Structure formats: structure tokens, C-alpha cells
């Protein structure tokens, strides 16, 4: 072909039907529908998205324009980059000051730390600390029940320096999120919000640049909620708190200017990116319904990488999870971001892990150049379609919540907890059966991990203050919000914060306890026939056992029933799994299990499901068939229980 002919050649436009034809050929008889997947949000993900999936209303939409799904700034992060706001952990104010100075000198761009009663053990030192940093960096603080004294300390620091107008960022709290964790609010709900609105009014006068109203969906996320539920809850909470301020005499513009939203970012990359984009769309429409002007409808978003997805075992994998979640958050268009430390679930945050967490964001900024492009995910047929569908489903759920009385009424009735529980149970079932993977925990577990079980104190949630009396004692003044919650009598079921990996971690710690008692948790694998016949299933069973901290002890190539019994005689294990291919199961038959049970009082399992004679295998003594759809969690727990009894 000449160069002229090449220039004149055109390519046929590929259609969706063309792709389907090629895909069908690759599937070799499987239906195209097998490529479609359903999410916990009840959204069906297609294997291929095309221009036809792009929402019509997106035509002409640009970053910085209504409905702000593509960001609140027209130039994206080039006009105002996101703030690295990693929460710092400390034992006293002196240590916090040292850690803040170091973190800020190494790239952190916001003042963020765990707000706890120890902060107020020395109010003079606290005021000095706040004075040192408040004019240079914005605050990123979920003050929780300690909002009142913290704002008081910041006000004092500002007055002494004469620079109140220069403080920025947020020192905020979400009373509804706190109520969801305590199982109720102070008895006089209206009186509580009247006092809260009055306190925020005083703070607005003294600290006009500081946002004080937090809409915090993190507790719901860490209880197992899906992205759709998080969005509906966030909008419902925002509406509730906004209305409370309006009811107590606030102007709409002023109230909206004080609101900041806080989300946790999970592991489903595109879903989490779409979640943040949908959140801006939903809040824009909500604020518009209140009568807000376009500029007032912009949503300021703070985010943190999920605690729900992290693990104690194989902790370095948490670095990868955090990087994935931080990437999704940045593409989603956040303003403040906390990236968790990889050892945070174990309660042992160290200098090294804090540095890695901070550098994760610095790499996204300086090496991945994500701050150089406005809305890099914008225009993606998949992301835009997912954003639209997620927003629509979240809005439907918000309307249902509204019809039931709003966020607080659905908590009081238990309806919202029930909806979250259904999602959490679905997630937990998928983890238990290993339909969904947690790398290093329920798949590819590393039995050489030497991890200490966290103490009860280390397991306690950052959201809860366990001793309100002790907390109040440590605070000299301005503790009205804390004192109000002291009077709470639980009137509804509180949210149950968790991590997905916890059930498997409990198994691992049970196995470790056995080892400490001198009992090696082990299960024997009776490997039938030559290597190629049993290796696949033996490898599968070894991986399954390791998820429970159990060691697999393999036999040699077993070619007779007597060889199997000889292996059992030489083994110290009391539980065995027969591993082979279907031809091996057919040739040995249930007689293998019968003869083993006749000779030894052991528990027997079979890897996979035999093609025939399943009932005969069970009658012969097979406890359970272990395969890819088995409930691994139940099986492993049962195995460990037998070892503990022995």
C-alpha cells in the first residue's frame, strides 16, 4: 500500500453491537449478561460504557459551574489545591506541638489532630499551640463533643494575637453523628439546638472565617453503609442541621457558609469518585430548594481514607489501600484529606507510618500531577453515568427518609440502622465466603505475620468519649455540648463501628493463642494421586486454612487407602482434608472416608464437590465439602473450636 493510499484509508466506526459480537466469541458460550455486575448500591455495572451513556444534562457543563458535580472551582486544584490534613495522634499538648511543627515542615498543609480530653489538661499550652499555627494554616478538626471548649480556646488565642479574622478552615461538629453513636441526644432536643446555635453564633462573631457545622457520614460508612446510603444520610443531615440554624434565627447565606461535609473513602475506586461528585450535585439542588444563590450552593468536602477497609494483619497492604482511596478522593474533588497510617487499626501509629501517609498525598500532588488538571475524571462515560445513577438513587432514599421524618427520626425508629445493617450483612457474607477479597486476610494470608492483639483501649473508637465525667473534669470551661451528652439515656440502637477484616482477625488471634499454649493449629491434607491431580485443590485448601491462622500439612502422593491411613498415623493433626481431582474421587470413592473413620476418630473434609455420590460421602464421614462458595469463616471457626477443645 502506497503512502497516498494509507492517507486515504479510513477506519470503520466500531459500534456497541460489534463489541458484543467479539465479546460473545471470547466468552465461548457464556452469556453476555455474565459480564454485568451488581453493586451494594443496587447499581448494575456494564462491561462497556459508550458515549450514549453520557448524561444529556452534562452537555456544556464545566468545572466551577452549576451543579458543581465537576468541582467548585473552574480551574480545579490549580486555583486552590486540596489541603493535606492528616490527623496527628499524641499523648499531651507538648508532643502535639512537636508533631505539628514537624508535619507542617514536611508537606502537611492543614492543622489536623485527634481532638480528645487530654488536649485540655493544660489550657495555657493549648492556647499557645493554637496561636502558633492558626494564621499560617487552615484548621481541619472534627471537634465532636469537645467543640465548645476548643472554639473557646481558639477564640482566646485569636484575641490575644488580635488576628481573629485570619483563622480559617473548620472546627466543626455533627450532633446527629454523635447521637447515632450514643443512641440518643439530650432529652430536650430543641433546647439543645438552641444552645448549640447560640454557641455557633458567638463563634461566628469571634472567628468569622472558621466553619463550625459538620455533616459527618463517616460513622455510617464505618458501620457498613453503601455509597448511596452515605449520600442520602449526608443530605438528610445537612438539611436537618441547616433547618435547626434557620429555626434559631440564622440567615440562610450565613448558615450555608458554616457547613462542611466529611466523607470516608472506601475501596471501590470509581464508586467513591462518583460519590463525591454526586454529593456536590445533590447539595447544590438541596441548597437551591432552600433559596440559596448559586455561589452559596457550593459544597466544601473534607474526606478521610476508610477505616472500614483496613486490616491489622499484613498491615503494609494498607498503604496500597490508602493510596487507592486517596487517589479516588482527589479525583472526586475534595478540599481537605486525611490519609490514614497503615498501622492505625492496630493502635500503634508510629513516626514512619505517619510519614508514609503524608507522602502518599505529596506523591499525588507533585509526581502524579493531579493538581494540574481540572476534574481529570470529567467526561468519562463510566464515571459520569455512575455519578448520575448514584445521585438519583441517593435522592430517592433521601426522599424516603424525609417522608419518615428526616435523619433523626429514622435513627430513633431504628429504620436507618436496619437499612445499614442489611448492607453490612451483605458485605460480611461476601467476605465470609471469600466472594470479595481482603488481601492478606481472607486470601493470601501470611502466617509468619507476628502481630500483637490490640488492647481494649486501642480498639476504642475515636468517635466516642468513654468517660464523659473524666472528660468534663479535664476541661476548665465551655463544656456545655459535652455536658449535654452526659445526660443522654440511650433511646435507640447506636451504630456499630467495625472493620470488614475483624472476623478473620479474631480467628488469627485464636490460632495465635493456641500456639502460645503449645498447640500447633494444623490440618492434614491427604493428597490423592500424582501432583498434577491434587495440587490445585491442595493449594486452594492451604490458602483457605491460612486465612484462619491454620497451617496445612501435606501428605505425599497418596495412591491407596493404606497410604492415607499411614499419613494420618504419622500426623499430629486431628482434622484432615482429602484433596484430589474428580477422577481420584471416583476411583477411591466414599470407601476412603469409611476406612479412615473406622481406624481413627478424626474429622474429615473433602476439597471441592464430587460429581456423584455426595450423600454417600457424607454418610461415610465427610464433615463438609470445601469449595469456592463455602462459608470459609464458619468452617475455620469450627476447626479452631475443635482444636481449642482438644
TrEMBL record:
Keywords: Cobalamin, Cobalt, Isomerase. Residues 39-113, 136-458 form the Methylmalonyl-CoA mutase alpha/beta chain catalytic domain. SUPFAM superfamilies: Cobalamin (vitamin B12)-binding domain, Cobalamin (vitamin B12)-dependent enzymes. Its cofactor is adenosylcob(III)alamin. InterPro entries: Cbl-dep_enz_cat, Cobalamin-bd_sf, MeMalonylCoA_mutase_a/b_cat. Pfam families: MM_CoA_mutase. The keyword Transmembrane helix does not apply. The keyword Isomerase applies. Belongs to the methylmalonyl-CoA mutase family. This is Methylmalonyl-CoA mutase subunit beta. It comes from Mesobacillus jeotgali.
Amino acid at each position: 500500500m502506497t503512502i497516498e493510499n494509507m492517507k486515504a484509508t479510513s477506519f470503520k466506526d466500531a459500534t456497541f453491537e460489534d463489541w458484543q459480537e467479539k465479546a460473545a466469541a471470547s466468552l465461548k458460550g457464556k452469556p453476555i449478561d455474565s459480564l454485568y455486575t451488581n453493586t451494594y448500591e443496587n447499581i448494575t455495572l456494564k462491561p462497556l460504557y459508550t458515549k450514549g451513556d453520557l448524561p444529556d444534562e452534562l452537555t456544556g457543563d464545566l468545572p466551577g459551574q452549576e451543579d458543581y458535580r465537576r468541582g467548585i472551582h473552574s480551574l480545579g486544584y490549580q486555583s486552590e489545591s486540596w489541603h493535606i490534613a492528616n490527623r496527628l495522634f499524641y499523648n499531651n499538648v507538648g508532643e502535639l506541638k512537636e508533631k505539628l511543627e514537624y508535619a507542617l515542615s514536611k508537606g502537611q498543609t492543614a492543622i489536623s489532630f485527634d481532638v480528645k480530653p487530654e488536649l485540655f489538661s493544660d489550657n495555657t499550652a493549648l492556647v499557645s499551640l493554637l496561636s502558633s499555627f492558626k494564621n499560617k494554616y487552615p484548621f481541619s478538626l472534627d471537634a465532636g463533643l469537645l467543640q465548645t471548649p476548643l472554639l473557646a480556646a481558639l477564640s482566646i488565642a485569636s484575641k490575644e494575637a488580635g488576628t481573629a479574622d485570619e483563622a480559617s478552615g473548620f472546627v466543626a461538629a455533627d450532633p446527629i453523628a454523635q447521637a447515632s453513636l450514643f443512641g440518643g441526644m439530650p432529652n430536650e432536643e430543641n433546647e439543645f439546638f438552641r444552645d448549640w446555635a447560640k454557641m455557633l453564633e458567638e463563634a461566628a462573631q469571634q472567628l468569622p472565617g472558621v466553619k463550625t457545622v459538620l455533616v459527618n457520614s463517616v460513622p455510617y460508612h464505618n458501620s457498613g453503609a453503601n455509597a448511596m446510603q452515605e449520600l442520602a444520610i449526608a443530605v438528610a443531615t445537612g438539611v436537618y442541621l441547616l433547618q435547626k440554624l434557620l429555626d434559631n434565627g440564622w440567615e440562610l447565606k450565613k448558615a450555608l457558609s458554616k457547613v462542611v461535609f466529611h466523607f470516608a473513602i472506601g475501596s471501590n475506586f470509581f464508586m467513591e469518585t462518583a460519590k463525591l461528585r454526586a454529593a456536590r450535585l445533590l447539595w447544590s439542588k438541596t441548597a437551591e430548594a432552600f433559596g440559596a444563590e448559586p455561589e452559596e450552593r457550593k459544597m466544601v468536602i473534607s474526606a478521610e481514607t476508610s477505616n472500614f477497609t483496613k486490616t491489622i494483619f499484613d498491615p503494609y497492604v494498607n498503604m496500597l489501600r490508602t493510596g487507592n482511596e486517596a487517589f479516588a478522593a482527589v479525583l472526586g474533588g475534595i478540599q481537605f484529606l486525611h490519609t490514614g497510617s497503615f498501622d492505625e487499626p492496630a493502635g500503634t501509629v508510629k513516626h514512619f507510618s505517619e510519614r508514609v501517609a503524608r507522602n502518599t498525598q505529596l506523591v499525588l500532588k507533585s509526581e502524579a500531577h493531579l493538581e494540574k488538571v481540572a476534574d481529570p475524571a470529567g467526561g468519562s462515560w463510566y464515571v459520569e453515568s455512575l455519578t448520575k445513577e448514584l445521585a438519583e438513587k441517593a435522592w430517592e432514599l433521601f426522599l424516603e427518609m424525609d417522608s419518615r421524618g428526616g435523619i433523626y427520626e429514622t435513627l430513633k425508629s431504628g429504620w436507618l440502622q436496619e437499612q445499614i445493617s442489611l448492607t453490612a450483612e451483605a458485605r460480611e457474607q461476601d467476605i465470609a465466603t471469600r466472594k470479595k477479597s481482603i488481601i492478606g486476610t481472607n486470601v493470601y494470608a501470611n502466617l509468619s505475620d507476628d502481630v500483637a492483639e490490640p488492647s481494649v483501649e486501642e480498639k476504642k473508637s475515636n468517635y466516642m468519649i468513654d468517660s464523659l465525667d473524666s472528660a468534663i473534669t479535664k476541661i476548665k470551661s465551655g463544656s456545655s455540648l459535652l455536658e449535654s451528652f452526659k445526660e443522654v439515656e440511650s433511646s435507640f440502637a447506636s451504630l456499630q463501628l467495625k472493620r470488614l477484616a475483624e472476623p478473620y482477625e479474631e480467628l488469627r488471634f485464636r490460632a495465635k493463642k493456641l500456639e502460645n499454649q503449645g498447640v500447633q493449629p494444623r490440618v492434614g491434607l491427604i493428597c490423592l494421586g500424582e501432583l498434577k491431580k491434587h495440587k490445585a485443590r491442595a493449594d486452594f485448601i492451604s490458602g483457605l486454612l491460612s486465612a484462619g491462622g491454620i497451617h496445612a500439612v501435606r501428605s505425599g502422593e497418596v495412591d491407596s487407602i493404606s497410604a492415607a491411613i499411614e499419613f494420618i498415623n504419622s500426623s499430629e493433626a486431628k482434622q484432615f482434608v482429602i484433596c484430589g481431582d474428580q477422577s481420584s474421587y471416583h476411583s477411591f470413592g466414599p470407601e476412603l472416608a469409611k476406612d479412615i473413620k473406622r481406624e481413627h476418630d478424626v474429622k474429615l473434609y473433602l476439597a471441592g464437590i464430587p460429581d456423584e455420590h455426595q450423600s454417600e460421602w457424607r454418610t461415610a464421614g465427610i464433615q463438609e465439602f470445601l469449595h469456592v462458595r463455602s462459608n470459609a469463616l464458619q468452617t475455620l471457626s469450627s476447626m479452631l473450636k475443635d482444636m481449642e477443645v482438644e
